Amino acid sequence: MRTGLVALLILVLALIWFNPDMADFKTFVGAQSERLLQQEVEDSDVGNFLSEAGGALAGAFVDRITDRNNYLLFSTYTIDFDGDEADENEWRFLGIAGFFLELHQPEVLEGN
Known about the structure:
With 112 residues, the protein is α+β, with helices and mostly antiparallel strands. Helices cover 46% and strands 22% of the residues. It has helices at 2-17, 22-40, 45-61, and strands at residues 66-70, 74-80, 90-96, 99-104.
């Protein structure tokens, strides 16, 4: 019983410690955006440059259209592309233990 409680306490503390913040999310979005752009452009020096630049820009400014809800053990991130109440243009992620899991992809990105 005592060992289980200690293990649970260690798990909770680890989740709190590794709960990703907005800076981590910006890095993640930059990498994801670069990957998506790379799929759309040709594999050339110019295409690679454009996808890297686009990914860096997306990562740098994503916090302006992102809502983060911090639940201490994990966080949720919602990128709202059009700013309205409809969910079809929102990209939602769960950030937990230093990782990001996609919960909902906007219709404009489905198939990528």
